[in-house]
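Researcher: Please predict.
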Amino acid sequence: MQTLRNLIGGRWEDSTGEDVLTVVNPATEEAFARFGAGSADDVDRAVAAAVTAQPRWAGLTVTERVERLHTWADTVLAHATELAELECREMGKPIGIGRSFVEGGVAALKAAAAQALTYPFTETVTGPGGDRTDIVRHPLGATAVITPWNFPVTMVLGALGPLLAAGNTVVVKPSERSPVSTVRLFELAELAGMPAGVLNLVLGDGRTGAALTEHEDVRLVHFTGSVAVGRQVGAATGRRLRRCVLELGGKDPVVVDAGVDPVATARAVAFGAFVNTGQICTSMERIYVHEQIAEEFVEALVAAAQTFTIGDGMEPGTVLGPLVDERQRDTVRRHVEDAVHKGATVRTGGVVPRRPGYFYPATVLTEVDDTMLVMTEETFGPLAPVVVVPTFEEGMARAAVSRFGLAATVYTDDPEHIVAAARLPAGVVWVNQWQGGGPERLYEPARDSGMGATGARASYDAATRPAAVHVSATPAPAGR
């Protein structure tokens, strides 16, 4: 049984909280790590360490900060397999998939840090009389990052790049369901020579997160998680007049047009619906397919789903690992049972396997409608509910009806329909691909899926505070 500790001001410490939490391997249902739930005192000391370290960190040049981050990124990349194995043990992600996402997180950290080298931390505007105004963007100070359980390493790296490169310091609170890989990530930060107090780690559950969110000295909270908790974070930061960036739930639609290859598209949709056992905020959770290709598309989707082999992610050949815990599997099962009760047909999957672990098979549903939970509530599991529509326009219209607006995907070969795809109410729209885009991508979730733009320059805008310095061209009057 591994014991995890907090990292505060460069020192690894046991929590002062009384409650002890455990981490369970979802493939075996066995606990393998434990840690104390961080107390308000732990949070106070972590924030104080970040506040103390921030002036010295901000005093480095941008180039020096970027170099430190690149060294950390290279160290993480050298341990990518180890981190993927830890993620597999704590939340079930197959190692091969996990490693690819760790590598993606490293690339995102490097790209975000590199953007600091061209970001205008100081801009000068000269007036007609020679007066000038300098716009200076200052770091905010101590910030907080609260990450979800589905991509512990990738989400930390993605959030920290702009915050740290801009001169802020950070306190991170990972999900209590998957903290082990984050602890190792911070050990690697120490190995890479990150200064004490720049990165701080406090483990715990929602109580720890609330103490961090409500702390008076935290100038920005970057939260990724559920809509319900995101509302609480927004309310808490709003009361203190502090910033927050929220990336919350999704119920992402896919619109499949008549002219596309139904078999190739079905395989792409299967990957978008089932990879990481459907535990991705941007998983394809609502599929609208044109009636002209629906039959062939569904047959190919069912065949593709049946190739997602269930098993422990540590085992070679596993494509579909377990869900993170029993609670998440119960949500998936409840959504399927609700759909079947209301008239949906299970084309494949839909039955909990008789084996240890929180497994659920890749499942395809047809004859679904908008009264069903599987079409209205975030499932976060390996489900692909399919709706057949008579026209592309109806598919688009139905895709747009949701309280969520994180991402959307459209498959079409019609130029006019490609233009129409941009009108979907989502932060990111992919056309004829899924998960595309590079470091230039900038977006803000729509509706209940969050608030605050991220990516490219927007992340640095959020991580800094602009101040105007006006300088007169006229010399000051001479003193007496």
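Model: Residues 25 and 89 are 5 Å apart (CA to CA).
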